[in-house]
Design a protein that fits this description.
mainly alpha; Growth Hormone, Chain: A; 2 domains; globular; MFS; transmembrane helix; membrane; transmembrane; MFS_trans_sf
Length: 395
């Protein structure tokens, strides 16, 4: 599929702008409860699980909306879709800041779920695919490189703002940043795609055609990975503490997850661009399995290696989530394909933390590690047996 790619300068500006907005979007949604859950629960006079559960609800909302978002980007490009994310996320944060009970709080997270559907990785990947076609692989890697600093930027900022001004003001400031910084960046730097007379017909035909069986296997692979990634992201500190690792050391080890993801993406960008994305995905899921199993003995040095290895594997799996569908299924209707993949992925991310927290409490850390390793093992089997590493014609 032919596309009019941005110039080199426009491309750098586009990736920088979209990367900054990814940091803002992730920091004001997915990473928000890690810092604000306790002050919100005290303010609303409710439990922390009830507060954190709103994030799971918002992920379900995002999953329901993802295919529609993808098809919209295929038809019209991502400029207005991404711009709408700034408005929706700002509206959700403003609503949250005025919540005095769980009802309004969950309404706010419903709006944030809509904003996540139109503003996180899948919408960004689909936008790049629509603009650059098969040449979007490097751009997807560049986007994840910048966005990989989301927790590094967001958590200190959120903690400082909450300590100084409270969680309500923190939400209002985040909303203002979305409107004053995020929205103009989307409007000024994301171009509209070049219209093509045949494109609407292709999209309409593909929307009613039988699904490519590879799409189901790709969705299964990334859903299994997302389940384990989400579970470990929420339960890692508790898992380390259950092995009698000190709280300070557990937090230090957990903080290495983000930098490990960024380093792995840098290595992929520097040395892996000639490798087929399916092999990148295979390497990523194997690294996640090795890292997960290394948590088993509960030794500090092994846990250090485990976190770095799992973080690296997760980092390149994020890239593969955009590049594998792009390479195997082509860039036509990439948004629709990514949206269909995103639905089960987001549902898995919503249910995994609670399910695995229950397993950790009831069965203990070793059972949790073996269960999660088994889930990733199924994903590895899919990657090695159902996804062929060949490069089709780049339609």
């Amino acid at each position: 599929m032919s596309t009019a790619a941005p110039t080199t300068r426009q491309h750098a500006t586009l990736i920088g702008s979209m990367g900054c907005n990814q940091i803002l979007a992730w920091g004001s949604t997915f990473y928000l409860p890690a810092v604000l859950a306790e002050p919100v629960s005290r303010s609303l006079n409710t439990s922390v699980p009830a507060v954190v559960g709103a994030l799971s609800w918002s992920l379900l909302v995002a999953g329901i909306c993802a295919p529609v978002v993808g098809r919209t980007i295929d038809k019209h490009g991502g400029k207005w879709v991404l711009a709408s994310s700034s408005l929706l996320l700002a509206l959700g944060l403003i609503t949250m800041s005025f919540a005095s009970g769980l009802f309004v709080y969950y309404i706010a997270w419903t709006v944030l779920g809509l904003g996540m559907a139109v503003g996180l990785y899948d919408a960004g990947f689909a936008t790049l695919g629509r603009l650059m076609g098969a040449r979007a692989r490097g751009s997807m890697t560049g986007l994840t490189l910048i966005a990989g600093f989301a927790s590094t930027v967001a958590w200190p900022f959120l903690a400082s703002m909450d300590a100084s001004h409270g969680w309500q003001t923190t939400c209002r400031v985040l909303a203002l940043i979305h409107l004053a910084v995020g929205l103009p960046l989307h409007l000024l730097t994301v171009p509209l795609p070049t219209p093509r007379a045949t494109e609407s017909a292709k999209i309409a035909k593909a929307s009613y055609a039988p699904a490519d069986p590879r799409l189901a296997w790709i969705a299964l692979l990334f859903t299994l990975h997302a389940f384990v990634m989400s579970a470990l992201a929420v339960n890692l500190i508790a898992l380390l503490r259950s092995h009698e690792i000190s709280a300070a050391m557990a937090v230090t080890l957990g903080a290495l997850m983000g930098p490990s993801q960024v380093v792995a993406r840098l290595l992929e960008y520097a040395f892996g661009r000639s490798a087929h994305p399916v092999w990148i995905a295979r390497l990523g899921i194997l690294a996640c399995i090795v890292g997960l199993l290394a948590l088993g003995p509960g030794m500090v040095m092994l846990s250090l290696i485990a976190v770095i290895t799992f973080g690296g594997g997760n980092g390149i799996m994020t890239i593969a989530r955009g590049t594998v569908p792009l390479t195997l299924l082509g860039s036509t209707n990439l948004g629709m394909h990514l949206g269909l993949i995103a639905r089960p992925v987001l549902v898995a991310q919503a249910v995994a933390p609670m399910a695995c927290a229950y397993i950790l409490v009831q069965l203990g850390p070793n059972w949790l590690i073996w269960i999660m390793a088994g889930i990733l093992g199924i994903g590895a089997l899919v990657a090695f047996t159902k996804l062929r590493a060949f490069t089709p014609s780049l339609a």
